[in-house]
Design goal:
This protein has helices at 11-22, 36-46, 62-70, 92-97, 110-122, 129-140, 157-167, 172-179, 183-197, 202-211; strands at 2-7, 27-33, 50-54, 79-84, 102-105. The protein has 221 residues and is an alpha/beta fold. A five-stranded parallel beta sheet has the order 2-1-3-4-5, sandwiched between helices. Strand 1, helix 1 and strand 2 (27-33) form a beta-alpha-beta unit. Helix 7 (157-167) packs across helix 10. The termini are far apart. InterPro entries: CheY-like_superfamily (IPR011006), NreC/VraR/RcsB-like_REC (IPR058245), Sig_transdc_resp-reg_C-effctor (IPR016032), Sig_transdc_resp-reg_receiver (IPR001789), Tscrpt_reg_LuxR_C (IPR000792), WalR-like (IPR039420). Residues 3-121 form the Response regulatory domain. It comes from Streptomyces dubilierae. This is Response regulator transcription factor.
Length: 221
Amino acid sequence: MIRVLLADDQSLVRAGFRALLDAQPDIEVAAEAADGEEAVRRIRELRPDVVLMDIRMPGLDGLAATRRVTGDPALRDVKVVMLTTFELDEYVFEAIRSGASGFLVKDTEPDELLRAVRAVVAGDALLSPGVTRRLIAEFAARSKEPAAADALGRLTEREREVMALVGIGLSNEEIARRLVVSPLTAKTHVSRTMVKLGARDRAQLVVLAYESGLVRPGWLG
């Protein structure tokens, strides 16, 4: 059973998400929170698998709350998915840098919401690859000059190649087709790369791909 915590200051939004999630046989809403402080407190208490976290909330906002969660080693297994009103919200890239596993627009289709919750728990994809590409295209161009790529020295040539493909928003299936390997092999390479770099999840791997200079803005095609 996937346990979800809903953090949003709008009770109607929480009610809608709860109705959808609780109707699934493999998902349950463990708790709700109306602001960031309450969200962090309930997360530490309940250790949910996934948190759907609104970016804009009174008091402690979603970004600050996410940094507290992802910065706590005891909560390493908790995946945070940010909720935003606009697909290319100016805070979304910062949310990913803060440790969020991805983001969703609030008016997303129900099937996409369910797929996203299951995907982040499985560690299999950074939500919608298409949305990921648009996110990267929008914000990578604003990123700072790449830092030194010392950490990449731990990777094999194939792992670097896989990391670059993750960085441009490809799913495991797309990586498998590009490299002519099985999806399981692609997933294994992604997992090993995350372990070697200490990446919390696939979203952080995307950020590291840009920060290390392995992927540069404009490579999306």
